[in-house]
Amino acid sequence: MANSSIENTTGPLLHIVLFWLKEPNNKAHRDEFETALKKLITTNPQAISNHLGIPANTEKREVIDNSFTYCYTMSFPDIEAQNKYQNDPTHQLFIKEAAHLWERVLVNDSLSLS
Question: Most exposed of 7, 51, 68, 112 (fewest Cβ within 10 Å)?
Answer without folding.
Answer: 7
